[in-house]
Amino acid sequence: MKNKKFKLAAVALLSMVTLAGCSGGKDIVTMKGGKITDTQFFDELKKSSTSSETLVNMIIQKITLDDYGSKVDQKEIDKQYASYEKQNGGKKAFEALLKQNNMTANQFKDNIKQSLAFQEMLKSHIKVTDADLKETWKTYHPQVETQIMAFDSKESAEKALKKVNDGEDFAKVAKSDSQDTVTKEDGGKVKFDSTATTEPTGVTVPTEVKEAAYKLEDGKISDLITVQNQQTGADSYYIVKMVKNKQKGNDYKPYEKELKEIFEQTKMSDPTFQQEVIGKELEKANVNIKDEQYKNILTPYLPQKETKTSDSKTSDSKETKSTDSSKEETTESTK
């Protein structure tokens, strides 16, 4: 099946590339009676409908790494990489997965650095006020200790729920039945609060699961919690046992650090805010595109400056004439 896909892709590529007689550039393909140079290849790639988007992404990535890459801690890169390894079956399994996708470990770490640098760029444009913290406090919940099981099928989840409701040890059932590879070996233990931070790291706890957990008393087990993936539409199923819940009280001051993190996370995930930041950074970098084809690709991203239109000028002119006319009438009337 893979070979068929490769052949189809090759045919599509050959049909796209015009083997023009022009020369220039380094040879990337040679064959009987001809060759393909990198210049020819680049010229064909420029005709792609996605070439403008690719160039925009390259510009943003360049600015991000140049200005904010130094703020990224290598320890955080390694930490995230280790988390991806664990989620994908360990070192060997993850390296095999990378190889299947024509990627090395270093390239994947570069991607992590790029992502973290982008976050640093967004964060540099955020100023958190006391009003922001108080507003965030309204929906904040302190860290809780739980045990969680996750499933792809409702049938498997229902069987596991019946076991724990019938008195079987939650940790034992999690080890044997849960499909969350990161937590199952430790009996499904997860600590989380309203931020995206979890213990262990790399565990995703959906909002629906958090909200259900906060309502549980210590030692209580939830009903089946259904979570729909917004991208694929597929359902996944969760069971939560509350180990130690914690009420937040009435004073937000002890939780300022967590509240700031939540506000920043919410702000950084806002597409409108991201667009504003990108626009400001592009303007600051004074990007000058030399290729006429791509001259205006950054226009949608740059801050829009207000300009006085010809219509408004015409309107202003009419208002002025109207005022002058009124003055003349008044003068005539006075006479």
UniProtKB/TrEMBL annotation:
<feature type="domain" description="PpiC">
    <location>
        <begin position="118"/>
        <end position="244"/>
    </location>
</feature>
<dbReference type="Pfam" id="PF00639">
    <property type="entry name" value="Rotamase"/>
</dbReference>
<dbReference type="GO" id="GO:0006457">
    <property type="term" value="P:protein folding"/>
</dbReference>
<dbReference type="InterPro" id="IPR000297">
    <property type="entry name" value="PPIase_PpiC"/>
</dbReference>
<keyword id="KW-0697">Rotamase</keyword>
<dbReference type="InterPro" id="IPR027304">
    <property type="entry name" value="Trigger_fact/SurA_dom_sf"/>
</dbReference>
<feature type="region of interest" description="Disordered">
    <location>
        <begin position="293"/>
        <end position="335"/>
    </location>
</feature>
<dbReference type="InterPro" id="IPR023059">
    <property type="entry name" value="Foldase_PrsA"/>
</dbReference>
<keyword id="KW-1003">Cell membrane</keyword>
<keyword id="KW-0449">Lipoprotein</keyword>
<dbReference type="InterPro" id="IPR050245">
    <property type="entry name" value="PrsA_foldase"/>
</dbReference>
<keyword id="KW-0732">Signal</keyword>
<keyword id="KW-0413">Isomerase</keyword>
<dbReference type="GO" id="GO:0003755">
    <property type="term" value="F:peptidyl-prolyl cis-trans isomerase activity"/>
</dbReference>
<protein>
    <recommendedName>
        <fullName>Foldase protein PrsA</fullName>
        <ecNumber>5.2.1.8</ecNumber>
    </recommendedName>
</protein>
<feature type="signal peptide">
    <location>
        <begin position="1"/>
        <end position="20"/>
    </location>
</feature>
<keyword id="KW-0564">Palmitate</keyword>
<comment type="similarity">
    <text>Belongs to the PrsA family.</text>
</comment>
<dbReference type="GO" id="GO:0005886">
    <property type="term" value="C:plasma membrane"/>
</dbReference>
<dbReference type="InterPro" id="IPR046357">
    <property type="entry name" value="PPIase_dom_sf"/>
</dbReference>
<keyword id="KW-0472">Membrane</keyword>
<feature type="compositionally biased region" description="Basic and acidic residues">
    <location>
        <begin position="305"/>
        <end position="335"/>
    </location>
</feature>
<comment type="function">
    <text>Plays a major role in protein secretion by helping the post-translocational extracellular folding of several secreted proteins.</text>
</comment>
